[in-house]
Amino acid sequence: NYRTEPASFSGGNHPRTRNKSASPRASGASQSPIPTPPRTAFDDANVFYTPDEFLALLVAAKDELADLRPIVAIGGFSGLRTAEMLRLDWADIWRVPDHIEVSAGKSKTRQRRLVETCPALKKWLEPHLAKKAGPLWNGHEVTFQQKFVELCEIAKLNKKSIERKSNGLRHAFCTYHYAFHANENLTSQQAGNSPAMIHQHYKGLATKAEGEKWFAVIPGGGTQ
Q1: Is 77 in a helix, a strand, or coil?
Q2: CA atoms of 86 and 74, how far apart (whole Å)
Q3: Phi and psi at residue 48, in whole multiples of 5°?
Q4: CA atoms of 177 and 208, how far apart (whole Å)
Q5: Residue of 33, 45, 105, 140 with fewest CB within 10 Å of its CB?
Q6: Which distant-in-sequence residues (6+ apart) come within 8 Å of 126 by Cβ?
Q7: Better pLDDT: 33 or 197
Q8: By percentage, how much of the chain surpasses pLDDT 70?
Q9: SS3 string of 114-139?
Q10: Is the pTM value of this prediction over 0.70?
Q11: Confidence grade of residue 46 (pLDDT, cut at 50, 70, 90)
Q12: Rg of the chain's alpha carbons, rounded to an integer?
């Protein structure tokens, strides 16, 4: 059984004096329409997982897919890139209390960062406390992606499989973490990118309540 619990962790003329004949309308000049910004993947609501989909993926990661569960949890609760997660050793999970250490050699940006482990993530990692060393994933990234597709197919929500979303766990983390904390500097520090990117791509995609629900997904029952 799995449940959720409340999240807690830490130069022009003045408008009145300018020459009206200089305006495009007064001079008879044609007015160009305001260009529409190009769409990006972030314009689509299905680019990241919902809390219910996240829970379904975690619950389904068992038996022959059990090795996926801690990686899915880390991806959703810490926002690490897939390549960064697959480079991690279990020692990176436990070395710094309450943080995951992403060394410069394992980080996309080639800069070491410490990513906070929220209470929910700690609960999902508890069964792995005895793993003090060794890689989180022993295979190739292609194999991981194949297994993740399989996981999405067997994970059910309302009797339907979960749609695989490219980088959906990282996008979800950034979306919900920013919604929960309203602090692009904090979210960017966790995710390993810039505050400007967080503000541009993730602002306004979720409510604080939805952020609370995401970080309250823990073993023990259903979502609330």
Answers
A1: helix
A2: 11
A3: -135, 160
A4: 9
A5: 33
A6: none
A7: 197
A8: 78
A9: EEECCHHHHHHHHHHCCCCCCECCCC
A10: yes
A11: low
A12: 22
